[in-house]
Design brief:
4 copies of one chain form a homotetramer. In chain A, strand 13 (228-231), helix 8 and strand 14 form a beta-alpha-beta unit. The radius of gyration of chain A is 19 Å and the shape is globular. Chain A has 9 helices and 17 strands. Chain A is α/β, with parallel strands linked by helices. In chain A, the strands form 5 sheets. The first copy, chain A, has a 9-stranded mixed beta sheet, with helices on both faces. In chain A, helix 1 (10-19) runs parallel beside helix 8 (248-257) and helix 5 (169-179) packs across helix 7 (215-224). The interface between C and D is large, with 82 and 84 residues.
Chain lengths: 305, 305, 305, 305
């Protein structure tokens, strides 16, 4: 296993982008990307994972406190209902991305240069009125599939990965072997590197120095035909790439593969319940708000065991 | 069946409030209300309803257009990401209630006078920092249960109920009989009166003249121990009651019963798929955003068949 | 001069409220309050104060940083104008009051119990659609009058007043005498106690322990017929009063007198220029945003010398 | 006078941009643009215009109603202050530009291609954190100068200009001659074409067919060294220009001249008072909110006669 990470040259990312490109795979007008892997039969099989009936949220609370990793916090305002109110009402204002909010990305959220998923171009897709293709509304019928936890930290025999490390394909294989589980087409994987444990011990993550998914692990996800990636790490920082691949994992996952990304999940309680139940898989359900043109949505994913 | 509705005197509502009061039923600190009816075993049984694997959103799109029934529309703003952007980002601002947004109510959203569910008082519960009891965060682990459509319009042999009509307990019984389905403890019911069809024919609903759930139907829900009420009608307007019961269904459901309310669902596609599949029940999944202190949350409920 | 403050009993505030009550003084429908003191002749006289042509903002920058004294900061968002933008656009969200924003209060912003200025009652004035009387729109034609700085700190021979001190009528007299200036009807006074200097030395003000305007100073303002009060102190905290007079200065100024309040000015640069020019008075100009129903408005007051 | 407008070729605009370019005129770091024409002596002279003491707002009310010309209306929310409130509080959310809000433009609000005033480039100036040069904060000390109304409609002997007409230099000269007034360096001009009268008669303006300032009138403004342009017309639509000059008046005024633009004033009451008092000039005072990085600000300009 690699103790510290090394990055392939950018030319390899260019090749990888082409090799993993799902343009046209599900038709020229497809806006679902890898959600196509979640067939009706897959949903039926996923429902059968519900054995104990325990349910668990894997979202964070919406965070109204400003901090370096949450510069533009959620604004929650209690509103005036009447002078002698018969109820309580409120308003919410939030940005859809960042490092504090559990959220789904629209497939057109990130480009590779001008390239958007399925052959579209950013200048045509992104308008002041919202995304005209692959917005979050495309995912309106939600995600209902098998979720699989992959505990990379435990597979390495560590409590957490240090900020200069990466998650490689071999890590994913090792986690599967240790957990005796196999990721199948249409699954949602949850990659755990122990970030929250590390933050509890060492303070908030430095966004400029982050564990990241390594390029060969992206290929692994493609080959395994996963539908959804989630995890406590995303793009590695720092990395040697130009602006075209500055967030290379987002760029390749979204713009080439149409891979659905669930950012900033709360994984600690998920790890605990998996350990307690001696299971690695569960039914995952979540659905974005129906925001026409939206680049993402806050969500509250639920795992059912 | 009543062609036009008549209302019992307010004194009967006072009695009904007491009879249906679940205060203390699940402990003095309970904030889940009728979600307690959704046991692990209920979840396991609900999962078994997934037979075809078809999934359907029953939310409306977030509505950014101002209208009489949507006076304070959702504000969706595309944001500046960089001068040569590598992605698209956006922001959202919305109010949590009203007649345009599909949303879950927090149990403490509506009071009966000063009374909040489980013996609390509004002055102590509602603060500028948010609800201190029975906020929407209490429902954070989501709702995963059997959903049952009750097609009141068809049971009456009509396309839709006229604005001066009400839904009585007998209507619910008649719908069950016609559909050969029985509502069971922990279910989420979806009461359909054909509102969207009526609006398509006659224009937007007049909020001052609305079909409503009648008091004896609230008792029916209590006796059947449903977990969630949803429907295209809620409180009847006009009604003869004082401010204490101006929205008597919300007041009794939330403040007495702790009954979870899913407001403003999109029922037409649900009716269509139920008719097509000749089914009345399905697996319902939804989860509110984790808003500490929140009075409700936009949601995108998903029905799986 | 009082080294530490003592408060009169609440019964004296009740009497003071009645004695200073301007109800009906300018007609039963008056919404201008003490702005009535700013006559056309007063404006002409104020314009003549412009001698050097120097202009100075006495507002703070809008503050987007969250802190104990700014819990709900201004939200400023750069917006997406186009993929190859020909300009920059943005949005702003802010609350109208608090301790970080330079703002004008609407006269109906604060009540004494149920009492609003000019005989109105809060339950009728305050609605979810905004204030129906004495909103900030009433001040739409702006404030153009003589401003007078009263340097209480220097009059006491101190750099700043300690948090347990108060500003008494005698302080105002002493400042006038030291500065050889006299406050006249229609003036806007700026009371300076050195708060920003104190904060620079000792850290942010503790909102629970604040220098305040003492009741006899409110009477002084009434007798002098000032149009506008501004300063780096407002209500004293802690104080011994019930909720009816918890913010007694706001309550008496707004609800009895209809005295216009400009909260959270930036006084340090004003003190500097006054010292440099050896002047205590200047032309003050400011105008609220035209917010129908608004309880206040952010402003940028300008002093012209 | 031109009955219908004709546009010079775009090459003439390129030349005009260069001829009117104030880059370096007031130093390489200047962010004030034509506000430099408002000298202290100019302010003293402007103050002397206050003769009657009458004050008039020339802003529109903030508009919370959605319409084709106000697609993203101001959001004004009354907030929860307490269960038995002692006051009323509220929040405001708004976009800074458009056709409904009276607002000042920051000089860097509009570019000509990549060109921003004083030699800067848009890619460096515009960031997600706000404008880094020539933001609205640069205008923080406000605008205090002579205002001059130029009634183009009356000079043409019409109630209003038709949508296919333009305002030429000759119109400005004719208005001066008719009104016996002369625009001087540092003045703020208010060009009136009768738009509100036309809208009252013919309905809301079609934003795709608008009266506009013609290129030779921009040269006139440069030669006269005005500090501020305001009026009920801005850029002519349709026009024959490329995206580089799609809003040619904004592009040349802001990016070449650094000319301050006050958009969407309410001119009808100003015309009335000028007619009543038989005056064309007055003291103008206004100041933007202190928004660091802001591209503009809502304002309430006040005319004092």
């Amino acid at each position: 296993m690699n103790a510290t990470r090394s990055f392939p040259p950018e030319s390899e990312l260019e090749a990888l982008f082409d090799q993993l490109n799902n343009t046209g795979r599900w038709g020229t007008d497809d806006e679902l990307g890898t959600l196509n892997y979640i067939t009706p039969a897959k949903r039926v099989a996923a429902a059968a994972l519900v054995q104990t009936g325990r349910a668990l949220s894997i979202a964070r609370d919406l965070d109204t406190t400003q901090s370096p990793n949450n510069p533009s916090p959620v604004r929650h305002t209690m509103c005036y209902q009447a002078h002698e109110p018969i109820g309580a009402v409120d308003e919410l204002a939030l940005g859809m991305h960042g490092f504090a909010l559990t959220h789904l990305d629209a497939i057109a959220h990130v480009y590779r240069g001008q390239d958007v998923y399925n052959g579209r171009k950013a200048a045509a897709v992104a308008t002041p009125a919202g995304l005209q293709f692959c917005d979050i509304l495309a995912q309106k019928d939600g995600i209902f599939t098998r979720g699989v936890l992959l505990d990379i930290a435990s597979a390495r025999g560590e409590s957490w990965l240090a900020p200069d490390q990466g998650v490689f394909a071999a890590d994913l294989d090792a986690a599967e072997a240790r957990q005796q589980v196999r990721v199948e087409p249409g699954d949602a994987i949850f990659v755990y590197t122990g970030l929250q444990k590390r933050e509890a011990a060492q303070g908030p993550e430095n966004l400029g120095q982050r564990v990241g998914i390594m390029p060969d692990a992206i290929r692994w996800m493609h080959e395994r035909r996963i539908a959804v990636y989630s995890g406590d790490c995303v793009d590695a920082f720092p990395n040697p790439y130009s602006v075209r691949y500055a967030i290379y994992f987002h760029a390749i996952a979204l713009a080439a593969m149409g891979l659905i990304l669930l950012d900033i999940p709360a994984l600690e309680p998920l790890v605990e319940i998996c350990n307690e139940l001696e299971r690695s898989d569960f039914l995952l359900t979540m659905a974005p708000l129906r925001i026409r043109g939206g680049t993402g949505s806050p969500v509250n994913p639920i795992a059912i065991f």
